[in-house]
């Protein structure tokens, strides 16, 4: 039921049917109210200087926009660095240090999939998950970091930071619940807009390829992968952050007659402990040097 609801919502926001467009129009008054509330929240927020340089990476819409690979590419450039995020989909609560800069201190069920990606892909980073971002920033400072990358942070208006905002394309420009926008780029809000294809571009590597691969993925809007895919025998889409079960994956391998499961790194960190044969569609990004210059100038 949850899976079907998630896919219905993704279709509603990004590729709506006629009936969904009608629903969207009927919900416009609620969207106006929601957008007004979000503006007032921004308007009366005070950006607190946390005593450390913070780079916020965010986007305005729900669903995937490439934040995680972009943060990985940026954070890998620096020493004494931390990556902080909420840790959506994790089994734990509160503040948790996922990686201390050297060792990974928990498993993926406790960290959440995105935090575990950072733990694997950003070699020198401290990785912290916490619903309370300010508390996590203080913890990172205590651990000696000099620069922090705050994942999904545009709406954290109470923290002083440099905002990098990934522009996401959508034909529906309405706020929730009529459209996919969580917030607007307010006229008095300073943010650096970054665009895929201009400020960063995706680089895809296929690792451990087999003759017969079945795509298994649990990312938002999985159709985004289509332009990067090699030949696969089948595609299996799960809702974003889905917690895989070993039996369901083995069943897919058997029913498809596949030699391996083709997964993204977000899926890999959850599937790897099962010991199932996987092929990896590893999506990374190359970042324009102008973005690093903006960050370096901000650091001073």
Task: Map the helices and strands.
Layout: H1 2-14, H2 18-26, H3 28-43, E1 53-59, H4 67-75, E2 81-85, E3 96-100, H5 108-111, H6 113-121, E4 126-129, H7 133-142, E5 147-151, E6 162-166, E7 192-194, E8 200-207, E9 213-217, E10 234-237, H8 246-256, E11 260-264, H9 265-271, E12 278-287, H10 289-299
Parallel strand pairs: 1-5, 1-6, 2-4, 2-5, 6-7, 9-10, 9-11, 11-12
Antiparallel strand pairs: 3-4, 8-12
Helix pairs in contact: 6-9
Please summarize the sheet with the most strands: 7 strands, mixed
Instruction: Count the DSSP helices.
Output: 10
> Whole-Å distance between the termini?
51 Å
On the 0 to 100 scale, the average pLDDT is: 95
CATH domain fold name of the largest domain: Rossmann fold
Low-confidence stretches: none
CA gyration radius, whole angstroms: 20 Å
- The helix/strand series, from N terminus to C terminus, equals HHHEHEEHHEHEEEEEEHEHEH
Question: What fraction strand?
Answer: 15-25%
In terms of quaternary structure, the protein is single chain
Q: Based on the structure given, which CATH architecture of the largest domain is correct? A: 3-Layer(aba) Sandwich
Strand order in the sheet with the most strands? 3-4-2-5-1-6-7
Task: Estimate the global geometry from the Cα principal axes.
Answer: globular
- Give the total of domains: 2
Structural class: alpha/beta
- Percentage of residues in helical conformation: 25-40%
CATH class of the largest domain: Alpha Beta
Number of strands: 12
